[in-house]
Amino acid sequence: MVSSDVVADRRARLLAGAAVTLGQLSEVLVPLGGMFAARGHSLYLVGGSVRDAVLGRLGNDLDFTTDARPEVVQELMRGWADQLWDTGGLAFGTVSAAKGDHQLEITTFRADTYDRVSRNPEVTFGDTLEGDLVRRDFTVNAMAVKIAEDGSLEFVDPLNGLDALLEGVLDTPAAPQDSFDDDPLRMLRAARFVAQLGFEVAPRVRTAIVEMAEQIDRITAERVRTELDKLIGAEHPIDGINLMCDTGLAQRVLPEVPAMKLEIDEHHQHKDVYQHSLTVLSQAIDQEEGDPDLVLRWAALLHDIGKPDTKRNEPGGGVSFHHHEVVGAKMVRKRMRALKYPKAFTEDVARLVFLHLRFHGYGKGQWTDSAVRRYVTDADDLLDRLHKLVKADCTTRNKRRAAALRATYDELEQRIAALREQEDLARVRPDLDGNAIMELLGLEPGPQVGKAWKYLKDLRLDRGPMTRDEAEAALREWWATQQS
What we know:
Elements: H1 4-23, H2 26-38, E1 43-46, H3 48-55, E2 61-66, H4 70-77, E3 83-85, E4 94-99, E5 102-108, E6 113-114, E7 121-122, H5 129-133, E8 144-147, E9 153-156, H6 161-167, E10 169-170, H7 176-182, H8 185-197, E11 200-201, H9 203-212, H10 221-232, H11 237-247, H12 249-253, H13 273-285, H14 294-302, H15 307-310, E12 312-313, E13 319-320, H16 324-338, H17 343-355, H18 369-379, H19 383-392, H20 399-422, H21 434-441, H22 447-463, H23 468-483
Parallel strand pairs: 2-5, 10-11
Antiparallel strand pairs: 1-2, 1-8, 3-4, 4-5, 6-7, 8-9, 12-13
Cofactor: Mg(2+)
EC number: 2.7.7.72
Keywords: Coiled coil, Magnesium, Metal-binding, Nucleotide-binding, Nucleotidyltransferase, Transferase, tRNA processing
């Protein structure tokens, strides 16, 4: 058990670090605190901004709360802020502004009530900070820092959010059942914060999510999608995914993922597809070179979702999943459309899922130039991500086999590089365009031109670049076969 002196020391160090972090924002905090105090109002930095300041990870988005009503906040900010706008938040008591590099949201104390059918609150302005904090989602997000007139800072923590942060625990200010009844999205936010912060949920919170998971159906697909993207783009996405699956949340919003937990029997052995997919996600993340790549991460998580529907027990104890990449790509499209993902994003993820097995069809290093061209052309602008996905998909514990797969894929990359030196693989096009095809064959615009164009493209992929004479001769020969 950690001694009280150690805990007190950790508290002191975290608060001292937060003070240093917030001190770097004096050009924003000091004038703001002065303006509000001059009008007889209090101002508090609050929520995730305080939590992140304590953790030493505060960004440029700052959240405040105040006893001043929205029209007063607008009046105070007008002329001081670089930009002031209403994104619909004013009806909820929120004024949004920009000052320098910082985005500010200042919200009047709230004491909302919920109809518990949707997640729409009946907006009621409150009179106390404590009343505002107790209605927030988790205690680690219910800490505040008072911004005094002289710029001094006072830490306010009536719900012991700092203790929860020190313990790495997500708990609700009030009973979790009441909190989730008010806003079921908070259950998904719990999984998201587990992924972002590396925390665990309190036992009573986990129990409440299990009991109430179906309430997430009240939330719109767009809001669910936003939380899922924040979760999968976080530092510890696997922890968040596990929480979703263990509590039943994933079965409501992303059922294809827990469905990968296929039963393994003594007669027909196969990898645990669910755990394999989480390993692939982890190995894909290890290859990222900058910001989280959501397309790659989603493709890694979902690359095998077609396996449950294609599983077949084979004679001799084997298991097959024939064409699971085809089925999986269709499933990706269906789920992402249901979650209202943009079409281009959905197609990118689906195409990676569809292509992730293509590499294994090339045999032991015996690729033709044609196969390499088709691989590059089909992947197109996703080629770099496909490289990473294929490498991440190697989770075998057999070191020899893993080394052989890596060597084989390295050879493929070398072949791609060699062909790129000889020709522009990023722009594989037929050697004759549509106009040249119509002129040569005496055709009017129509389906036959498209068919001829496709033939020439396939020929180009098979043979590489051709001279115009070679392309014309090949087209005439093909056209003759179409007329017989």
